[in-house]
Amino acid sequence: MNPLRVWATLSLVAGLVAFGAIGCSEPPDDAIMKAEDAIKKAVEAGAEEASPRLLGKARTALSEARALADQGHNSDARKKAELAVIQAEQAERNAIRTGGKRMTRPGGGGGDE
């Protein structure tokens, strides 16, 4: 096989691999916005009172997602943002279920986890 053809083929493959890696690592802006919206909805439903620990965990996960995105760790940032959405949605459900009042467990412990 012609060495020039081998070089061209290898260059093409390397370019496709690099392009694929970039495509898989897009900034998680959409996931972060979804997490922000989920936290806002949870707050509006009364989660600050009904489920403060879970809402706090969602806020922490969102903050970590932003930091990871700023550092270019887009895949990890997306996962943290998705975790924030799950936690915020659960906090919202807790708030709706309790009418915005703090959840308690028998024995006096909070029940928002």
Description:
With 113 residues, the protein is mainly alpha-helical. It has a domain at 28-98. Helices cover 77% and strands 0% of the residues. It is built from five helices and no strands. It has helices at 3-24, 29-45, 47-50, 52-70, 74-98. Helix 2 (29-45) packs antiparallel against helix 4 (52-70), helix 2 (29-45) runs parallel beside helix 5 and helix 4 (52-70) runs antiparallel to helix 5. The N and C termini lie far apart (64 Å).
The gyration radius over C-alpha positions equals 22 Å
| Residues in helix, % | over 70%
Largest sheet descriptor:
none
Give, in order, the helices and strands.
HHHHH
Share of β-strand residues: under 5%
Shape type? rod-shaped
- Give the rounded overall mean pLDDT: 84
Number of strands: 0
Secondary-structure-based class equals: mainly alpha
Give the termini separation.
64 Å
Query: What is the number of helices?
Result: 5
Low-confidence stretches: none
Which terms would index this structure?
113 residues; mainly alpha; 5 helices; 77% helix
Structure summary:
Helix content is 77%, strand content 0%. The protein has 113 residues and is an all-alpha fold.
Strand and helix layout:
Elements: H1 3-24, H2 29-45, H3 47-50, H4 52-70, H5 74-98
